[in-house]
Amino acid sequence: MTELDKYLIVGAALFVLGAIGFLTRRNLIVMMLSAEMMLHGVGINLVAFNYEHQHNQGQSFTIMILTVAACEAGLALVLILSLYKRRKTLDVDVWGELGEAKPLCDVRLERRATVVEPQEEEFSVDPRLTPAGRLPQFNKQESVTRV
Amino acid sequence: MFSLDTTLLAQMETPWAIILPVIVIGLSLVWLLPRGGKGLSRLSQILALALIWGSLFSLTGLGHIAVTDVLFGVFSTGAILGGICMITSRNSAYSALWFAIVTLSVCGLFLLRSAPFLSAATVIVYAGAIIVTFLFVLMLAQQEGTAGYDATSSSPLLTTVFGMVLFGSLILGISSWPKISISAASPATSAAGTEVAKAPAAQGHRYFTSAETEQANAWSRHPEGEVGSLHGLGRSLFGDYLFAVEFAGTLLLVACIGAIAMAPRRSQGTL
To answer: Is B58 part of the contact surface with chain A (CB cutoff 8 Å)?
Structure first.
């Protein structure tokens, strides 16, 4: 096992630990920290190859990674803050469903709603006329006494 | 250190020398990850970390002891154990502090690979800016301390199996790669890293021929062979990668404008 392999193994370990942390942890900020740790693993790889090749490309690439990591951290913090402002928690499971609160996606529910006639128990005392305009406001007891 | 010379022995021993430590690391990680209820006791935490450390030690196979080996051991142990403590910590503020340990250890590894400017830049950017802002947001949003969602993790077993499969295959690739390239290239180029570091251009290389590296990105190759100095890095950045540097500056500007535009307004109410 050469010198290069040791550094590559450390880089791989950091990358895998970051991936595990990103997938398992539920705190948004810890997830972002895990992503940064994956970038550290990649940086170790690049610097190790840079030394191995005696060529400055790897360090230039790592500086680019540093720049992108800074941008990513800033934008991620803004997004986390605006997410926190909505639901007042950093839990990522809150954002599991991205749609509205109760989506009407069940076809059977819609079909049942079209087939079943509404039971007009409340207005059975009234004469059945075609509705024109809005219904007049009245309470039930008065209408019962009228009949 | 096991030798890779006898091919039969290498074929017999290498997979189990990789698979067993990887399984031990995975089991210890599952043991350490939060699964509700009370956390592990301090003793079992130390035991699991020692198991992981021993497995990694057997993976890297440190043989003869030199100063750089000791420093490498310290920094790599700090990086990996800090990373494990970061993803298993039940307090997210401690996670951020463990990430600072990881960053400092990675900077030590950068120094060992003769990248002093990069090491300083990483300390400034990560430990100075990123961790501080993360801690700031964390303490703004989570003022009551440990939250319930920090005490449980989502599907730890499945994810750790995935991670360990990835880790094992990466290590298998790393350890089988030089054998392939040695058999493909000439036997004179199969020297260790130190000899390559002394005379890289004259001796050729294990992974690329010298003509290829001479042709590609000539500004990145330092004429004196001194790698990682500020002079050489500046030549590389502003010679070969000038457009990339300009693009990175534009990216920083765009990210800055985007962060200001997306940030919650004060008129909409603060946190």
So the answer is: no
CATH of domain B7-191: 1.20.120.1200
Structure tokens at A30: 């810890």
Q: How confident is the model at residue B271 (pLDDT cuts 50, 70, 90)?
A: low
Supply φ then ψ for residue B267, to 5 degrees.
-70, -25
| Shortest Cα–Cα distance, B237 to chain A (Å) | 6
CATH class label, A3-95: mainly alpha
**Closest residue in chain A to residue B237, using alpha carbons only:** A60
Rounded CA-CA distance B48/B35 in Å is 16
Q: Where are the domains of chain B?
A: 7-191, 192-271
First-last CA distance in chain A: 99
Q: Do A22 and A34 touch, CB atoms closer than 8 A?
A: yes
Reported pTM: 0.70
pLDDT averaged over chain B?
77
Q: Is residue A42 within 8 Å of residue A68, measured between CB atoms?
A: no
Q: For B258, which DSSP code?
A: H
B264 burial class (0-12, 13-18, 19+ CB within 10 angstroms)? middle
pLDDT digits (tens, 9 = 90+) for B164-195: 999 999 999 888 876 544 444 444 444 444 44
Give the integer Cα–Cα distance in Å for B70 and A65.
Answer: 28
Alpha helices for B116-209 (secondary structure H): 116-122, 131-141, 148-151, 156-184, 193-198, 200-203
How high is the ipTM of this complex? 0.71
Cβ distance B262 to A4 less than 8 Å, yes or no, reads no
Tell me whether residues B197 and A54 touch, CB distance under 8 A. yes
CB contact under 8 A, B80 and A66: no
**Shortest CA gap B187–chain A (Å):** 16
Q: Is the dihedral of CA A59, B97, A74, A22 positive or negative?
A: positive
Convert the pLDDT of each residue in B214-268 to its tens digit.
667 777 776 666 677 888 888 888 988 999 999 999 999 999 999 999 887 777 7
B175 touches B196 (CB < 8 A): no
